[in-house]
Amino acid sequence: MKPISKKKKRIRWVAAILFVLCAGFCYWSNNSIQITNYTYISEEVPEGFDGYTIVQLSDLHNKKFLNDNASLLKKVKALQPDLIVLTGDIVDNSHHTNIDKAVLFTNQVQQIAQTYYITGNHEVSLKRKEYLDFIKRMKAGGVVYLKDEIVHLKSESGETISLIGLADDSLLSPKLEEIMRGEPEEGLSVLLAHEPQYINFYAETGVDIVFSGHAHGGQFRIPFLHRGLYAPDQGLFPTLTEGSVTRDSTTMYISRGLGNSAFPQRLMNRPEIVCVRLSCS
Ligand SMILES: [Fe+2]
């Protein structure tokens, strides 16, 4: 057998190191959770809600961070949320659907703070039996499912803010208007709506804050352009994939989400927890 030359050996070493670095970077991209903090300042925020902390988790897609999401839950707990909102696609409906795993997660989150949930496109397309099983068990754990509903959250001093949940298969603007009919124009309103591309519909109703997800940050984020590569319902180079966006008097926070669906890899697009603190001044 011919001995391997020094040059070939060196090339093999370099290839092996590059492979390990690449694999490490891919793992880091999918598993290193980033917390994005925002402060929402408005006169509409009642004094009793000054400093109120809302943590948003979206698009988990049945992903697990370490054992039973330990690392994710630890980060959520450390933020000391007053309220947790789950904005859809907690269950995946492509190739790794797991209702047990999703229910365990929602139960764990509910133990940290009162949690409200809306469906994403993946839950609404589950088999009927799976969907009903998930909703029933999640609600049994204490999570509140807002299916085209509005609730009023009360501060200790008795002030309220409105929390609206829009199911993902709703007819958007007409449905939203219907839900909000009779609501006073003043006062802070927070909408949970899975899909960000309907921002104009949401803004038309005059809601103050929207939490959405769905776009997964555009899957691969393009450095310097600050844009994602692709998002469902927005196509190539989508514009509504992360960050906060303002339309008229509406501020929308778009979560990059936590997991993946059909395509298993994120790049330059770490899983994200969104944390919004309300401030009245
Ligand atoms: Fe999703």
Give a description of the structure.
With 281 residues, the chain is an alpha/beta fold. It has one domain: Purple Acid Phosphatase, chain A, domain 2 (4-Layer Sandwich). Helices cover 29% and strands 26% of the residues. The chain has 7 helices and 16 strands. The protein has helices at 6-31, 70-78, 99-112, 121-124, 128-140, 172-180, 199-204; strands at 34-41, 53-57, 83-87, 115-118, 144-145, 149-154, 160-166, 189-193, 209-212, 221-222, 227-228, 230-231, 235-236, 243-247, 250-254, 272-279. The strands form 4 sheets. A 6-stranded mixed sheet has the order 1-16-2-3-4-5, with helices on one face. A 6-stranded mixed sheet has the order 6-7-8-9-15-14. The chain has a two-stranded antiparallel sheet with strand order 10-11. The chain is elongated and about 85 Å long. Bound molecules: fe (ii) ion. Fe (ii) ion (FE2) binds at residues 59, 61, 89, 120, 214, 216, 257, 261.
